Amino acid sequence: MSSKDTLHENVQKEISELTASISEVVAGFRKLQRPLIESHDKVPQATSQLDKITEQTEAVTAQMLDMVEKLTQREDEVLSGLETIREKIKAGETDSIDSLIETLVAKTGDNINEGYQIMEALQFQDITAQQMDHAASLLEDVEVKLHGIINSMGDSRVQGPMLSTTSKKRAYDPNADMVTKKTDQDAIDSIFANGQK
Amino acid sequence: MADLKILAVDDSPTMRRIIINTLKRAGFNDVVEAADGKDALAKMKVEKPNFVITDWNMPEMDGLTFVTTLRSQAEYANLPVLMVTTRSVKEDIVEAMKAGVNNYIVKPFTPATLKEKIESMLAG
């Protein structure tokens, strides 16, 4: 065998080994591609959930502030009315007291209703808590995938338990929403009316 | 309403407080609470409620499993169960009905809706 032939053979062997290495790297990248794409899709979902929480929290807070403003204003009127009653009693002017008391009773009733409306609006806490759990769960999935990618690259710099293995048990509705209901109460009632016949 | 004892099941302490306050304002004063399906099953034996209001999404045991478990026991076959949940997808509502839920309200709810549903279930 001539030295030219040996050189040719060596080059061929090198090229074939290089090709095998490149194929391995390409296969490795393909393996990483799926978790990367999945992670990439989950981050915008989590961001959109967090944006929704901010919007809905702001809307409900504004709604509650409106109610609290009305309630405190009415409380001021009640206090002032009570002061008037005291003065009228001192002055012996008792004729108009009954109607004044009626007005104050009505205002107090309105305040109680307003208080219950505030309580009703506080349901947003449960809904935003579920939206937060959904966002957290999406981010935990991303964490698991990134952890897997880093491990498969043989990098040991990421240490310690993953958040997803230490966090709480999550139970949430991914569609929980303060404003939008996919089925309204009338349609629900009709499902039950038809189903229970 | 004198003999009515309601069990309110929800993993959110805020929601339990809201439901209990709403019920008391509507005149339903005898209310006990549970934090999830597992807790609710234990309370069923001790408290013996005759009306159940339950959430769906809860850790440990969800509302659907809780209702299915209840319905598998003869003594709870006719117990009125109202589900109060954020889940508003039609398929979920149908699934809840098939599991044995008698009526369904989507959160956020108004006190009037809750009162009306309980009264209609008690009447019917």
Protein architecture, described:
The complex is a heterodimer of chains A (197) and B (124). Chain A is 80% helix and 0% strand. Chain A is mainly α and 197 residues long. Chain A has a domain at 1-38. In chain A, helix 1 (3-91) packs antiparallel against helix 3 (124-152). Chain A starts with a helix and ends with a helix. In chain B, helix 2 (37-47) packs across helix 3 (63-71). Chain B has one domain (5-123): Rossmann fold, CATH 3.40.50.2300. The A-B interface holds A 116, 119-127, 129-130, 168-173, 175-178, 181-183, 185, 187-188, 191-192, 195-196 and B 10-12, 14-15, 18, 21-22, 25, 56-60, 62, 85-90, 93-94, 97-98, 102-111, 113.
Task: Describe the structure concisely.
The complex is a heterodimer of chains A (197) and B (124). Chain A is mainly α and 197 residues long.
Oligomer: heterodimer
Characterize the main sheet of chain A: none
Q: Identify the CATH architecture of chain B.
A: 3-Layer(aba) Sandwich
Q: Biggest chain pair contact, residues each?
A: A-B, 32 and 36 residues
| Residues in helices of chain A, as a percent range | over 70%
Strand runs of chain A, count: 0
CATH class of chain B: Alpha Beta
The total beta strand count of chain B reads 5
What's the name of the CATH homologous superfamily of chain B?
A: Response regulator
The helix-strand sequence of chain B is: EHEHEHEHEH
Number of domain modules of chain B: 1
The Rg value of chain A, from CA coordinates, equals 34 Å
Low-confidence stretches of chain B: none
Terminal Cα span of chain A: 93 Å
What is the topology, as strand order, of the major beta sheet of chain B? 2-1-3-4-5
Overall mean pLDDT score of chain A?
Answer: 86
| Topology of chain A as a string of helices (H) and strands (E) | HHHHH
Question: Describe the biggest sheet of chain B?
Answer: 5 strands, parallel
